Amino acid sequence: ELPEINGDFYELHMRLSPEDRAIQLRVREFMEREIQPIVNNFWLHDEFPYEIIPKFAELGLCGVTYQGYECPGLSFLMEGIIAMEMARVDSSIATFFGVQSGLSMGSIYMCGSEAQKQEWLPAMHRLEKIGAFGLTEPEVGSGAAGGLTTTVKRVGDTWVLNGQKKWIGNATFADVIIIWARDVDDGEVKGFIVRKDTPGFEVEKIKGKMALRIVQNGLITLTNCAIPESDRLPHANSFKDTARVLQMTRAGVAWMAVGCARGAYENALDYTRKRKQFGKPIASFQLIQNHLVEMLSNLTAMQSLVYRLSELQDGGLLKDEHASLAKVFCSLRTRDIVSKAREVMGGNGILLDHNVARFVADAEAIYSYEGTKEINSLIVGRAITGFSAFV
Ligand code: FAD
Question: Locate the Acyl-CoA oxidase/dehydrogenase middle domain: which residues (predicted)?
Answer without folding.
Answer: 132-225
